[in-house]
Every structure is written in C-alpha cells, then in structure tokens.
Amino acid sequence: MSIKVAVTAQNRKTVSTHAGACRNYFIYTINDDGSYEKELLELSKNESLRYTFHDDTSEQPQNKLFEMDVILTGGIGLGGVRRLASNGVIAKVIKETEPDVVIEKFLNKTLEFFEPENHHKEGHHHHH
User: Fold this and answer.
1) Model confidence over 16-51: pLDDT tens digits?
2) Does domain 3-107 correspond to CATH entry 3.40.50.2000?
3) What pTM, to 2 d.p., does this model score?
4) Domain ranges, ordered by start, for the chain
C-alpha cells in the first residue's frame, strides 16, 4: 500500500515554514519498495489549510490535503496539527529544507521531528 506525503514548498524549491498559508506542496507517493513519484500540488487560496480551518463555513470542510497520510512542514501550529489529525493526517515539523532530502530521510527513518508551535491568542509568545 502506498502512502502519500505532502511537503510544504511555497516557492516550489525548498520546504516552507507556514503550512497554513502554503499553497504549493510536493506530493510524494511512496511505494512499498521505497520508490516514489513526486508531483507538485498547487492549491487556490480557498484550498489552503488556513482557509479550510478559519474561513470555510461548511459543516465538514474538505481539503485536498486531507487525502495525505503525512504533511511535513517547516512550521505549523498545534491547532493545525490537531485539525489535521482529526482528518487522519499526521503533520510533522521539520528543519530540513530540501524536499528530496526530506523524503530520503523520511524513508530511511533519519528525519528529525520538532514540536509544533503553540500560538496564543494574546500575541506570539513562543516559550520553549
């Protein structure tokens, strides 16, 4: 069974740091044998996670990214991680910047994961 991994790449080159605003993703479809296909997914503004989570007023907002198994990004808030998890998607924060290196490390299980950001309503205070 193949798995689908989305990597945020707003500039279509490197891993971007804000999943919510990101509209360009590299989608890696990883096969059982470790081989993969890579494609670029370009979303409209109304398909971004920020729109889906904050502006979509439908009862069950849908997003193409909900079809992914994993989303790897340079930055996402805890709320986004939870919302994705409730749609069956694992979101992970990474510091690696090269999408193909990310996937190689993901495949050989050497990719390092970091804690998602905690966004507080009273401004951006990041306590680590």
Assistant:
1) 999 999 999 999 999 999 999 999 999 999 999 999
2) no
3) 0.90
4) 3-107
